[in-house]
Amino acid sequence: MAEWIAGVDIGGTTLSVGIVAAEGGRPRALRVDDTPSGGGPEEVVDMVCAMVRAAVDELARTEGPDATVAGVGVAAPGSLDRARGVVLESHNLGWFGLPLRDRVQAATGLPTVVENDANCAAYGEWWQGAGRGFRSVLGITLGTGIGGGIVMDGRPFAGATGAAGEIGHMTVEFGGRRCTCGGRGCLEPYASGPGIARAAVEGLAGGTRSTLPELVAGDLNRITAATVHQAAAGGDAYAAEVLARAAQMLAAGITGAVNLLGPEAVVVMGGVTAAGDLFFGPLAAELGRPRFRSALDACTVVPGALPGTAGVVGAAGVFRLRTDPARG
Amino acid sequence: MAEWIAGVDIGGTTLSVGIVAAEGGRPRALRVDDTPSGGGPEEVVDMVCAMVRAAVDELARTEGPDATVAGVGVAAPGSLDRARGVVLESHNLGWFGLPLRDRVQAATGLPTVVENDANCAAYGEWWQGAGRGFRSVLGITLGTGIGGGIVMDGRPFAGATGAAGEIGHMTVEFGGRRCTCGGRGCLEPYASGPGIARAAVEGLAGGTRSTLPELVAGDLNRITAATVHQAAAGGDAYAAEVLARAAQMLAAGITGAVNLLGPEAVVVMGGVTAAGDLFFGPLAAELGRPRFRSALDACTVVPGALPGTAGVVGAAGVFRLRTDPARG
Prior knowledge:
Chain A is of the alpha/beta class.
């Protein structure tokens, strides 16, 4: 009788739920939906719990009624009180002091643990993805923001103060672009999805030749990082240059992070991985330029292997780790 | 009968040796000398061992013949094979593959351990200095270069690859100043001693009003970071601005490091601590500006409390930790 764990990834735009075998593997009964907005935390938590129950039911249908779901691992954004499973502060979702663990436990009847979403994604890649076999992994998720998670000796690492891994707010250009955090020159405004889109739009304002305006029917506000990938993949040199610049800024952030932390691997996740060589080519080229090498040479930088599911897999893995630490 | 440990700090310009009680406290029988150059590793190691023997003899005279020195902790620059006590690569000293532990053991007759100098300085401040009582400390030494050392849960942290802590080579200004490592925009060329001196000289080239030329009798090549402190302390607004700029760049590096690593404290060491408020004032002001705050607000940034001896104290502490881990 196999044992299973539900993994939940709560994002600002997307909710993902799947069931992962305790020994690992691809998530089953996967469901993805838009994060409801306007209804507050209750609506989101209700929807998450309904998705978990539906996934558990689906698993029973496909794996037989004996398939046991041991519990729920939840990947949540923001700062957490891990011991109590409380989301202290998530500006992304507008949650402050939400007792997420207790709510999910009550609604699903399953033991629940809560961990930071970026840490879950990094843990998922370490456990079942591109970070397998490395002793320590820095996971970087390029999305609406830039999330960073650290796995050290097989465990999520949150630092002494619980707030480690925030690579998006490393300064890479002193006095540079304004960041949503209020600072300047953070990595996030250069290499996040909106950062890439904004750089593309700003460059177009100068009358640059590009297929981008066509792709959005002239409405430049509709340009996203995905539009930039699409244009670059179609041979648009300007779009390729915008992507390359973002990759170069990420290389600067990775250099700093690797020199400080000395991980064996960096796993780059998020939508940008779909751009493939258009992004990872310039990233590798920039990392290969002259710079302080000892930590970089000892570190492997790879794209994530679990697009869309690293958080779900990692959340399930964190549940397994916390409830049966000997397995970690 | 008290037990003692010899601490050795091997720097590119200075050798320091002292004897530290196993329970801590100020180093005794302290001696400091210039690092001999030109004679290769042999000459340096011979001198270090002679200094250790002299310090042990002095201790016997002051503490009585029963004072037992249990061993030697050596702080060495560069990358290390800790298990074998070998300096793999120190560009600073020109040492490659030097079996430092065995040499010191043979010449002193005392068990010896070797640890990275920046880690020893951080460990010294954590054990006996400004980092006491914190669970994790990032130590930053501003000198000829910028060294970084991490203490986590009471132990030096070297990362999975043994190369962690190199905060001097975090990129803080993409495409900025050339660094000795070959890269651009690293923290080191902005906030190291030579970086501060160079910034001062470059600004003077424009005909800026300053007392600096006077202080070096017109020979601008003689300007060092200490000259800049001296001028600033004497009311030179230009020199104060140069120091403030270095402090601001350091703040950018600290922001990135703290966001990534989440330590409880950052201890800033090195000659620059002598500048006091002229440096730490602008540093605090810059750290207080709008930026991503959760990890920074949970972190204390302080000047080191063991000027000149953090490495000696830390090396002795690392010996104690490695030979009696229960004490750590």
